[in-house]
Design goal:
Elements lengths: L17 E4 L5 E6 L8 H12 L3 E5 L2 H6 L3
Parallel strand pairs: 2-3
Antiparallel strand pairs: 1-2
Length: about 70
């Protein structure tokens, strides 16, 4: 089941649910999932590109996952 379909020329598939900046000014991208949620190929590609530019990113399923990232 597809929740939404991006069709606009200015839309990017796979953008993380939470985007921000950490206290030490690093870019932040978090993909929030339930315990059984799956990361799509476009979400994985976005996180890979984000990490390539030294951003802090990851898939989080709990507060403990956030803490493990140092947040």
């Amino acid at each position: 089941r597809k929740f939404r379909k991006n069709n606009g020329k200015f839309e990017i598939n796979g953008v993380s649910d939470i985007l921000g900046i950490t206290k030490d000014f690093r870019p932040l991208a978090l993909e929030v999932k339930t315990s059984t949620g799956k990361v799509s190929d476009s979400q994985k590609a976005f996180l890979d590109r984000f990490a390539a530019y030294h951003g802090l990113c990851g898939v989080v399923r709990s507060i403990e996952d956030c803490e493990a990232l140092g947040l």
